[in-house]
Amino acid sequence: MAHFRVSSAVLPIAALVLTAGLFAHVAHAADSFLEPQGPIAAVQKTHLVRATLLILIAVVPVLCLVPLIAIRYRRRKQSQSAYAPNWDFSARLEFLMWGVPVVIVAVLSFYLWKATHRLDPYANSFGEAPAINVQVVGLDWKWLFIYPDHGIATVGEFGIPVGQQVAITLTTDTVMQSFMIPALAGQIYAMPGMTTQLHLVANTPKTMQGENTQYNGRGFTKQKFLTQAMQLQDFDAWVNSVRANGIPLTTETYKTLAMRTDRDEVQAALGTATMPLNALYFTLDDGDLFHSILHRYHSGQPLSVAQQPGTVSYGQESGQ
Amino acid sequence: MTIEYSGIFGRLSWESFPIAGLIQSPNANEIVANAAAAIVIVGAIAVIGLLTWFRLWGPLWRDWLTSADHKKIGIMYIVFAIVMLARGVLEGVVMRAQQAAGPGEGFLEAEHFAELFSTHGTIMIFFVAVPFVFGIANFLVPLMIGARDVAFPVMNQISLGLTVSAGMMLMVSLVVGEFSTGGWTAYPPYTGAAFNPGVGPDYWIWAIVVSGIGTTLTGINFAVTIYKLRAPGMTFMRLPMYCWTIICSSILIVFAMPPLGVAALMLAADRYLDFHFFTNDLGGNMMNYANLFWLFGHPEVYLLVLPAYGIYSEIFATFSAKRLYGYNSLVIATMSIAVMSFTVWLHHFFTMGQSALINAVFGIATMLIAIPTGVKVYDWMATLFRGRIRFSVPMLYGLAFLMLFVIGGLSGVLLANPTLDYQVHNTLFLVAHFHNVLLPGVLFGLLAGYNYWFPKAFGFRLNEAWGRLTVVLWTVGFMLTFLPLYFVGLMGMPRRSFSWEDPSFHPYMIVAALGSLVLLSALLAVVAQLWISIRDREKTRVPVGDPWDARTLEWSTPAPPPPYNFAIIPNVTERDDFAAAKERNEAYPQPEAYEDILLPRNTAIGFVLCVFSGVWMFALVWWIWWLAALMSVLIVVAFIAWTFQTDTEVVIPATEVRKQHEAWLEIVRNSDPVNRDHECAPENRGLARPDMEATT
Amino acid sequence: MKRAPTHSYPGLNLGRRHPEADKASEVVTFGFWVFLMSDLVYFGLMFAIYITMIDAQAGGPGPHELFNLKSIFAQTLILLTSSLTVGLAMLALKYNLPRSRIVMWFGVTLVLGLSFLVLEMSDFMAMAEKGGIPQRSGFLSAFYGLVPLHGLHVAAGCIWLIVLGIQLRVFGLTDLLMSRVVRLALFWHFLDLIWIGIITIVYFGGLAYG
Fold first, then answer.
1. Residues with Cβ < 8 Å from A214, sequence gap 6 or more?
2. What would the pLDDT profile of C98-137 be if each residue is shown by its tens digit?
């Protein structure tokens, strides 16, 4: 039985060392809030560290004392350690046991309150320059970025100017999805017939990955996009290039776009030689596409599966 | 898309069987699907074959399936839970293997992977954790409070029947059709008829509804049992800590299962009758589903973990040879956790766009739960303090729990911060967190309880060496599998991803996959431990019934206990009554007189409802309307017919009770008491001697 | 285990005269209360869903077009009266009147329960004629998720009345059946309570805010 005792001590420690090694590896976590590219993610990272340290005040004693107590008070021949079989209460200890967690939670709550309000995705707390408005529509399985003020729309590439507040309004034209660019800010759900909001700011010109985190079918893992943070003049050039190379986002084009396809598949259907390999560019006509998408679910009329983007039957002529 | 439909078979057709897919396109994905189906079929045939070969159908029917004895029902729950655990662990290994394959690699198709995470979650919560928790509760609660059975023994049997038939639906879904791809939470509109017209979500819905009814009945049963059937003198503040956790769990069930039932039935109405609760069009609102589901879902995790806390409380006291420290504190903490668990459901969707104020309030409410939970951990440490700690298997599980659970608590409090949740919600960080509380928290507790009370249930101890090996394997397996996921989650990898691209994830995924193999070997070690223990049972018999020098009432009975539990209902005078009696040298008293004992008579109603409800669910899933209607009628008729049964009890005459009890007292008198040096030796017949050797 | 017919019903005031049956009945009755509590949560949630969906009419017919207060008034009177008749059955049990009296009051209650259901069904049919079907809108889904759920409970109560009536005839007033009468009465009053909620929240609330 001796070898079990040895292994019981060694193996968990080995496992810990291994995971600690992996932790060191995290330092190179590009595309996550551990390497923040904007003030919101930066505050989130600070908050993570601060909260972790505070909680460790309660956790570390457990991690240290449990092995110590277990060893010191183990049952053995001629044990010199105290034994108090009937001891089951101490007012002083009780005060500590309840008091320490209460104080920690109180302090944490203070920071939580502050951070939650400061980082409210609906609030415009960071950028001072005027906001760029972007409307984001979740489709199966790609994100459509509409720039109503610039008359353009993109898929797969999300261009934003550095240092400016980006005010995003989200919805989906299919099932619920969750929009996130980890290096810039946290996620927010996008839901059909409803809008949510997210504000973010990028500090430096950089390419960052964005994604959907809410499982929505076969193409879920391909629902990624590149966020291009650019200097203002580069952004303007980018907008012009989208406008120049984009195809009009007509009702028919939108229908193709909204099919149950991942970005590669829709690229094959709509992409042109002048667009980048992993992005689609569109120009907008006068209509308010975003609100017509929202209106789809508020018309007061039933929506057949053939009219519902994201279903297998979408776009087919319905039998009736 | 047209769905083929016939009057007799509904939408069931040749294409519904996975073998059709294998013939059409033989690839790794289809092979895995068919292998799973084959395991189910071969397993079922093997069980039927073995039962027939050893002529066990009669005993199985008489002694088990029709029994209303809470102890047997409890054991059946646990057997069912372990079978389902095997499937859940295997699914976990397959998923880890898929994710370890490398960027963009893997052998499974996306939809198949989605079925795996959906069944894995559904099984582990509803068909492993719940039946295991209530299996142990079934066995223990009447013994602990000094009762002969639960308040409603037949309803107890029905609960088991409904849970098992619902679990069988998940097995059937492997062989016929497919399961939902919507995760264990089954959020609409994804699971609605428009986006998922197949049978998958329907399997989920009916399994959840029927097992939910079973669980609700269990909750009612145990609340009433503990409120009303306590032995004389067993006041609330003398209850074993475990019973307190079961009361809280039962109350949670009574209030928390209805939201799940409502949500699932509303989803069913949407899918079957074209209602508009959660649809995109005509005013449906999927946010209502999220609220309902988590109004259930959050109390659910506490109704699982509280009984595990109860088990640890008993174990820490027994194996430290001490009283439980801070009983009052623990009671208050348990009750406050139970109540507060209803006030925090919104933290499961901080990211749905509520105002910062609401998020902050729910975030703080969530962190408040950490206070009583922390107090519990410290109370347990104080229980160990100045004890005489024996590193038996249950205690090892307990120590591993204390160390690992606080890490889960750490990540839990982090997740309670809305601002951090925005980043790690829906990522593997969340997956790591809830596995961190459910494995070391719930599963370790259940396995500790299994090792602790096994000798009480079967009359012999489990193998100690193999038991220690299981602790090591579960602990190491857990750490390797789930600690890396915290980091990948912080790096932004979404949960439920069947593939990924970022090469920096790869080492984590490989370690996690290796860890899952360790977890699989841990499961195999549990089976091996059982096998070896059964083989060596003659050397580990503990007929007297108290192998661990334990403190609570159940240990004062024979092992295994007689059907009536107590020949004479004990008169309780203090907390840890049995420990006190041993100290006073008054354990195992000679009764002055015996009385006739009334016990619930065997009945087939639970089994009948199990079969009928199983067929009913299958018929609904496959739109076989005539069969569903027929089964609905049969279920009602069977129940009404049962209410006409008036002769529901059997009498065990006082002479028989006397004979059995005196024979056991004779064993007690003829057994040598042992001290704790010989706890794991063949000399330990279950009679404890005061343990002074280890004290100066 | 036979008991003398002079004993009153278990539950409220039996203790002194028949302690064992009283004790057994107390456990079951308490359990039934717990069940009702759980059932009440079901209804509570459906009420909550109804309130959140009162505006989700999606251009379909709303409370003003659909609700017929006269019929609701009649249904209310019928259901309240049926609670009275169940109460009279309980009194018959308490004062040791012949069991045919209990069965008779059960019969009256059954007739009232069934006429309630008939009126409710005709209400639903009238609503359907005006386009008020559950498939039309979220609001109507919530309505049909809640009100017929109560109706289903009433129907279950009616089946219970029939079954228990038959059992009283077959087995006489045994301890078990007497405690079942108590529980059936509890259940029936519970349905009344829910109905009060329905007229207040679904009908009046719907008309006021819908």
1. A176, A177, A178, A189, B187, B426, B494
2. 889 999 999 999 999 999 999 999 999 999 999 999 999 9
Over residues C13-40, the pLDDT tens digits come to: 444 556 677 777 889 999 999 999 999 9
Cα–Cα dist C47/C151, whole Å: 15
- Identify the pLDDT of residue C18: 63
**Which residues of chain B neighbour A300 with C-beta distances below 8 Å?**
282
Q: What domains can be seen in chain C, in order of their start residue?
A: 19-209 (1.20.120.80)
Structure token pair of residue B169: 């639906």
Reduce the DSSP state of residue A280 to 3 states and report it: strand
Annotate A69-136 with DSSP letters as a single string.
HHHHTB--TTB-S---TT----HHHHHHHHHHHHHHHHHHHHHHHHHHHHT-TTS--S--EEEEEEEE
Cβ(B467)–Cβ(A5) below 8 Å? no
Rounded to whole angstroms, what are the CA distances from C18 to C3, C10, C24, C33? Answer: 9, 8, 11, 22
Q: Does C58 touch chain A (CB under 8 A)?
A: yes
Q: What is the pLDDT of residue A127?
A: 66
Kindly state the tokens that stand for B312: 């640890």
Task: Give the domain ranges of chain B.
Answer: 1-55, 67-537
CATH, range B67-537: 1.20.210.10
Tokens of B538: 């003659």
The nearest alpha carbon in chain B to A212 belongs to: B494
Q: Does the CB of B366 have a partner CB in chain A at under 8 Å? A: no
Please, which residues 25-84 of chain C have a Cβ atom closer than 8 Å to chain B? 26-28, 30-31, 34-35, 37-39, 41-42, 45-46, 49, 52-53, 55-58, 60
Every domain of chain A and the residues it spans? 33-72+89-119, 129-301
DSSP string of C102-118, one letter each residue = HHHHHHHHHHHHHHHHH
Separation between Cα atoms, residue A142 and residue B370, nearest integer Å? 39
Distance separating alpha carbons of residues B277 and C141, to the nearest angstrom: 6
Residues C131 and C61 sit within 8 Å (Cβ to Cβ)? yes
Residue B643 has pLDDT above 50, yes or no: yes
Strand positions, DSSP E, B473-623: 597-600
C-beta neighbour count of A33 within 10 angstroms: 30
The hierarchical CATH code for the domain A129-301 is: 2.60.40.420
Q: Which residues of C touch B269 (CB under 8 A)?
A: 134, 141, 145
Cα–Cα–Cα angle for B6, B11, B16, rounded to 5 degrees: 130
Cβ of B364 within 8 Å of Cβ of A112? The answer is yes
Q: What is the pLDDT of residue C94?
A: 80
Helix ranges (DSSP H) in B1-64 = 18-24, 28-53, 57-59
By residue count, chain B amounts to 696
Residue C135 burial (C-beta neighbours within 10 Å; 0-12, 13-18, 19+):
middle
Residue B658, chain A, CB below 8 Å: the answer is: no
**Of the partner residues A4, A44, A119, the one whose CB lies closest to the CB of residue B469:** A4
Q: What is the pLDDT of residues B585-598, one digit of tens each?
A: 999 999 999 999 99
Chain C residues in contact with B151 by the CB 8 A cut-off are 27-28, 31
In chain C, which residues have their Cβ closer than 8 Å to the Cβ of A300? Answer: 58-60
- Distance, CA of A118 to CA of A132 (rounded, Å): 20
At residue A9 the predicted structure's pLDDT band, cuts being 50, 70 and 90, is low
The ipTM (two decimal places) reads 0.93
Selected residues 8-27 of chain C with any CB under 8 Å from a CB in chain B: 26-27
Chains with 3+ CB–CB pairs under 8 A to A are B, C
> Residues of C with CB below 8 A from B259's CB?
41, 45
Check if A298 contacts C (Cβ < 8 Å): yes
Is B284 within 8 Å of B236 (Cβ atoms)?
no
| Phi-psi region at B549: left, alpha or beta (left = phi > 0; alpha = psi -120 to 50) | left
